[in-house]
Amino acid sequence: PPQHHARTHHAVRPFRPSRMNLPAIACALLLLLHLNFSPVKSSPPQGLGKGRHPPGKGDHHGHNGHSGDDGHQHDHSDDYNGYSFYVFGDSFADNGNLVKMNPRSELNRQWRYPYGLSGRFSNSLVQSDLIAYMLRQKKSPPAHRLTRKVGRAGLNFAVGGSGVFDVPGTQTLARQIHTFHKLVKDGDIDQDRLASKSVALVAVSGNDYARLPADTKSFAEVEDFAKKVTAEIAFNVRRLQDIGVEKVLVNNLHPFRCSPAQTRPYNHTRCNERRNLAATLHNHHLADELAGMEDVLLVDLNAAFSNVVRHYNDDGDGDIIPNLFREKLAPCCESTDPKGYCGQVDTDKLEPLYKVCDNPNYFFFWDEMNPTMVGWQAVMGPLDYPIRKFLGLIR
């Protein structure tokens, strides 16, 4: 495969604006993102299975095609002439690629209340929608499973719960890219347009690290695993470039020590620092793996999330964004069972086994791992400029 020898771009860290009251904060955040979204309804990057392949030699074959059609998403006009956007990853980006079925589970709850009917793992929009808006699209391109037409806007292949290793019921990053590659080879995706005006998002958010026991203390063990995960991500980024994608956005790992699943044992009063090592090592090795790759932007989700969650016990020290949220570590929707999940229902009594807040707009997190729509706006606002600059949309 071709080698790439240029500097990997890194998204800058969030700014620190002056103190404002809550209504002004909300207005400023909306203006920052130029938002004009129509809400859609919608969990964490879900659990993990065992890895079955070394980096670069994973499940790079097989896909689900267009099976499981149960509807069509919003239409993207063929008059659109901006970047074609192709989305890969997990629940941070999925907009409907998991099948709605019974019984309800962590991998299909997003089609039901309190998530709604959009197939997104949030109360509304997710990261892929906000990046699409930067590209002057209304929402993320359609979910691959829900459409038979590949328009100029692109296509979303992300599957909640996925990672670089196999998880039952989901597709690995490699399998998602294999599906995309088949569409290119079959002529459903125009190769010339792909090479001249396309961007991909790779959103791998830490599901693989669920394979590590919670009490793992060996630095060498965690580092070895992080090297395997990040090497596989880098291999798949190169694969996207070899297929013909012009530019690639790659998320680093958010501070999942501060996700509600990790802060619940502390009654959401502090982050679980014991879970910090994996994210730190992952981000270090991912930066090393991507260094020198041409037309790759490392999207600093860690800094953007940290700008909010590090202020879990204060008002943000004057920052606009963290001061927006009354709850920075507690989720809006939480299971009544510490081992359960948002959206879980008693199968006999059909009664909800979760509680939902009155106003998601005051909560950074929606469920055990995923942000609310306003949470995603707070994350992506400071990343708007570096992403659009990388894509040449601003000077």
Q: Any key phrases for this structure?
A:
globular, two-stranded parallel ribbon, 10 strands, disordered N terminus, hydrolase activity, acting on ester bonds, signal, 395 residues, 6-stranded parallel beta sheet, Rossmann fold, single chain
Q: What does the model show?
A:
With 395 residues, this protein is α/β, with parallel strands linked by helices. The chain has one domain: Rossmann fold, CATH 3.40.50. It is 28% helix and 10% strand. The chain has 9 helices and 10 strands. The chain has helices at residues 22-33, 127-134, 173-185, 191-196, 219-243, 260-263, 276-290, 301-309, 373-390; strands at residues 9-10, 84-89, 154-156, 198-203, 247-251, 296-299, 327-331, 333-335, 354-356, 363-365. The chain has a 6-stranded parallel β-sheet with strand order 1-6-5-4-2-3, with helices on both faces. It has a two-stranded parallel ribbon with strand order 7-10. A two-stranded antiparallel ribbon has the order 8-9. α5 links the parallel β4 and β5. α8 (301-309) runs antiparallel to α9. The longest helix is centred in the middle third of the chain and has 25 residues, at 219-243. The relative contact order is 0.18. The model is unreliable at 1-7, 11-28 and 30-75 (pLDDT under 50).
